[in-house]
Amino acid sequence: MNALLLSLQIAALGMGLVFGAILLLWLMMILLTTLTREKESAADSAEADSTAQADSKLQVALLAVSLALAEEESSSAHPLDAPPTAIVSAWQLGTRTRQMSEKSNFRRHAQ
Amino acid sequence: MNALLLSLQIAALGMGLVFGAILLLWLMMILLTTLTREKESAADSAEADSTAQADSKLQVALLAVSLALAEEESSSAHPLDAPPTAIVSAWQLGTRTRQMSEKSNFRRHAQ
Amino acid sequence: MNALLLSLQIAALGMGLVFGAILLLWLMMILLTTLTREKESAADSAEADSTAQADSKLQVALLAVSLALAEEESSSAHPLDAPPTAIVSAWQLGTRTRQMSEKSNFRRHAQ
Amino acid sequence: MDFASLLPELLKGFSNFTLGNGAMILAALILIYLAVFKEIEPVLLLPIGFGCLLANIPLAGMSASEGMMKILYEAGIKTELFPLLIFVGVGAMIDFSPLLAQPQMVLLGAAGQFGIFGTLTLAIALGFPLNQAASIGVIGAIDGPTSIFVATKLAPELLAPIAVAAYSYMSLIPIIQPPLMKLLTTKKERLIKMEYAPKPISKTALIFFPVALTLVVGLLVPEATPLISMLMLGNLLKTAGVVDRLSAAAQNEIINISTLFLGLAVGSTMSASAFLNLDTGKIMLLGLFAFALDTVAGLLFGKLMSFLSGGRINPLIGAAGISAFPMAGRLAAKTANDEDAHNFILMHAMGANTAGQLGSVIAGGILLSTVGKILGI
Amino acid sequence: MDFASLLPELLKGFSNFTLGNGAMILAALILIYLAVFKEIEPVLLLPIGFGCLLANIPLAGMSASEGMMKILYEAGIKTELFPLLIFVGVGAMIDFSPLLAQPQMVLLGAAGQFGIFGTLTLAIALGFPLNQAASIGVIGAIDGPTSIFVATKLAPELLAPIAVAAYSYMSLIPIIQPPLMKLLTTKKERLIKMEYAPKPISKTALIFFPVALTLVVGLLVPEATPLISMLMLGNLLKTAGVVDRLSAAAQNEIINISTLFLGLAVGSTMSASAFLNLDTGKIMLLGLFAFALDTVAGLLFGKLMSFLSGGRINPLIGAAGISAFPMAGRLAAKTANDEDAHNFILMHAMGANTAGQLGSVIAGGILLSTVGKILGI
Amino acid sequence: MDFASLLPELLKGFSNFTLGNGAMILAALILIYLAVFKEIEPVLLLPIGFGCLLANIPLAGMSASEGMMKILYEAGIKTELFPLLIFVGVGAMIDFSPLLAQPQMVLLGAAGQFGIFGTLTLAIALGFPLNQAASIGVIGAIDGPTSIFVATKLAPELLAPIAVAAYSYMSLIPIIQPPLMKLLTTKKERLIKMEYAPKPISKTALIFFPVALTLVVGLLVPEATPLISMLMLGNLLKTAGVVDRLSAAAQNEIINISTLFLGLAVGSTMSASAFLNLDTGKIMLLGLFAFALDTVAGLLFGKLMSFLSGGRINPLIGAAGISAFPMAGRLAAKTANDEDAHNFILMHAMGANTAGQLGSVIAGGILLSTVGKILGI
Ligand code: NA
Ligand code: NA
Ligand code: NA
Questions:
Q1: First CA to last CA across chain C, in angstroms?
Q2: Chain F residues lying within 8 Å of E17, measured CB to CB
Q3: E229 with E214: CB under 8 angstroms?
Q4: Mean of the pLDDT values across residues D278-286?
């Protein structure tokens, strides 16, 4: 029964550690989102905020519609069928070309 | 001449075994096609049969036409040029999605 | 200072060898272009020559235009974005098919 | 040379065929059947089934020391390369923005790991030694590469049944979870609507997230570093937006080839002697228990969060914290939607689901660390 | 340090250049020329030629113990991984429905293997030891990966000439076969039309076929298991229809990379000492003999089947039983069509051709088994 | 077992964290930042940065003997496979027709290598031993795979700073070169227009070029054979036009996977002890010197050619002879175009640029040969 006791100790310790680590992750995420939000220019942040909210509401609505449609369709619907396969970009060539024409670009394309 | 005799024995034995194995394959194929045909629903089997025959005749006719066209065309025709590259499907995501909306699907898409 | 002397010797010898090898490459390139040009049929060589010149001038002009356009465009233009990804051809199947219909083809498609 | 001795040689395939081989070939056919006709995780169960078939053809030698399957096993399983490369591809397919928009959802990713430790305890009670019990417990990570990674380190002899259990049950989530959802939540709870008005997540946050996560988890649980870092590497390749070539390679050739070879190599360990015993049956049952316990713990924690938030959280999303990405997230959303056609909690469920993915990897690392320390490995 | 000693060092490339290197470089250039300008199996002969070139640059060390070519050889040829992975891709490109629709065609796939054993006997008569004779005989499989697989096991020292012979003659099928077809069949026979009204082949049959074939061949000829199972794995990935990702990977990245590396590694074994000898010439001739004997046996068996069927079978399809998939099948159909523009026997010829592919692998396994037993390996 | 001893175990990640780790993680973050936000060679600096991050997480063990990064290092860096496979892909992307149309441009490819030997000398003067000095000098090849290849052979302990310097400065070419161009050329020189009326280059010439080049360079500089042959193999796959499958594989899966793994493996060598020392700083400065010296030598040689040709050659194209393909070629053309919007010298600059690529590989081989001989390796 010693082994069982040990396993219970492992379980308690393990779940404690999992929760501990996850709490730290939570903290990290809050820090990260706060810090990066502050980096967005203050000027358009109010606007951006409302836009983003509208966007996300739109997104939820679209998701809802697609989910509903998927529901009504025959069971063979795959609403999320295509994996987001990235298109192969210019890579080495392209990057160096860009680098040449623009010396200090922050980030260009919304990926 | 001992080696030559041995090689003739190997040849005889080898070809015998090849034919033996191939005969077993023949048997397996007959079994397989018979068994799987019986699994098709009896109802539409007659219909399916004739359809399939018509289909295969059509297929032969199409092949014939394409072969004839290829013949008449310049020598650079590649009637079978494009390899049947499978389109990358939804994979993990897709499968699980489907699994969710239909619990017991036999087989959906004619591959 | 012995090491420095050695390194200077290496530098002199090294650059000498680089130039020597490059000179041999130059010779090889001249030989190669001369030999392969003579292989082109004499008949259309004059024509080909002028066509090629016209072509290359056209090429330069096009490059110029594209470069100029790229210049005027916003800095996010990637004039050479797409890498020349070869389209996957028929390979084994295709090659053998061709081989069958034409016994002695020199080279068919301008790659 | 004795020419006559060739004839028994010719029937050696049959004369060496054992009842065990027959049973395992039957198991292989069942796996292939489930993969192809029931579409139960076909990308893994089809290669696993085929590998199992090959391992049980007598004298074929494919699992023997110079056989192809053994070579694949040594190259990719023993070194852990295959599960890690699969994680690079998976990472490039995960979107962490729902989670970043609702960081509190990360807690559900911790709750969904109770199954790991509960199952470990039950496995110990059933007489498994600690290394095996921990490997069986990690089925409760409900994440293929994590299970394979941990099992390979602690109890490679159980790799095949653990992998089969993990992937099979993951496909059966839509059958395993709904009864528990119905049982543990009230209709009123399932009807709770959740607003989705998240903080806007900047590109910058999405780019730094995988890097920061690798650092935090790596420092907290060094044993989880290989898994979490490869998952986050894939994610970084995607979110960076400047290395589309690498991101595409991760999502295609790297994951596809690794998956095929992983499946074959895992299947090729399914010899009769290693697989046909009572332990395999116990593992399948313990795996099911792990899935159920994860779901129950997730739902209960969801109910707790629902209560603490004053009823603004739908406890169904707790069931998405078990990992099984992205299946469990969709299933939670669908269940809520089935109850009320105007209730959409997909974004919340996906937040909990990606949290579950992270929690699983972290729990796997903690398990490795704790058990490894005790066993002195 | 003696700085003056550097100068001879600089000419070491030339001073170590032998006549043999020159001859082999010429051979490499011829291979590259044939591949590029005559399109003779370019995907293999181009890398083989380039590998040969590299092997004969003195002191470049690419075939030496830590050279790239040696690394590729150890990783993919010695382990047999490359030919097996190529077979996964080939299997995903084969359609067995014409064969399943006309199972009797499978017999032609046996007849088309006489060349293997006939050539083995002739090679013994010419003084080759048994292991080499068998490897030379397997050129008569008229299937690249099978030839390479068997030759690597029995006589790796002959790998390069055998691979070159196998792939070169395969491309020359349209030149080798027609005279024999004309010689051995009457015009009346070539005019025979064959109806194509096959039994419908269900998806289920197409899915179970690769699995059943692996089992049957694996039990009958365990030595053929690696080859047949990888061919059938590829086919199963395609016919299953649920793992398109894996099927695409097999047909693209897996086969392409393996083919490139296989060609380079085979070519890199073509050192002057190993290649420039009378044996190479003999092997080239024996290879041609193997191709001719396969064709003759296939045609004669076709005539026998034609006779037994009361003239309902066109004996030309016998020539498609030699393997050389899919070339020989098309050539047989084209020959019949040339004789009568309304005669279409492509489906029958492709049935015989896929049967030849199976027969070749089986015969290769039987050869390995028999010869291996005699030699005690 | 001592359960209490688990607690210190839990903080081992932090208790083993050194200041050096912190500094290197900062360096990793900077690399990732530059790669993602400044797009400085992201396909390499992003994996290098991530690999560096992993190498500095205490006890994660990814760079330890059985860690994934160590496995990648042994498989692809120590064997030189990754840089060589990258070269196969690069070769398939290079077009040598501008060079073949103006063979005299090849001379600029020699001039652009002065930086290698000048930097070697300076490094010796700064106290580096010969093997390290040569490896640092090869940053002046201004070509990633060449630098990595040579450094791995001569001074693997310096691989990481050399690779980081090579790739970083290559991305900074548009900042490094223009001031030197302005300084060393007169406005009149920069205004020189060059006619582009090249000899027509036949397909045959383009096909034979990579083969002939491999032979010539291989015989002259056997040590350069691995690099030049793989570059030319890739080019041959493209120009041959009959192996599109292999060409596509080279340009996609082969180069992408090799690049990702190369970057991770190089980054994983960046431990604090190996990286955080004065030498790294010196190497970064010496690398910058190499880039500048290459540019200066190229420009001066361009001026010489301009003078000898009676002013028909724009000396700016000399700056394209340093390699850094295809960046330096474009930059030279752009600089001329900036000066006069009707001046287009792109084709000439690309000719010089591809010559620089060849010259870099040749110089790398000569360096290996000379230094190897002196050091007796
Ligand atoms: Na979990
Ligand atoms: Na054959
Ligand atoms: Na250079």
A1: 56
A2: 219
A3: yes
A4: 93
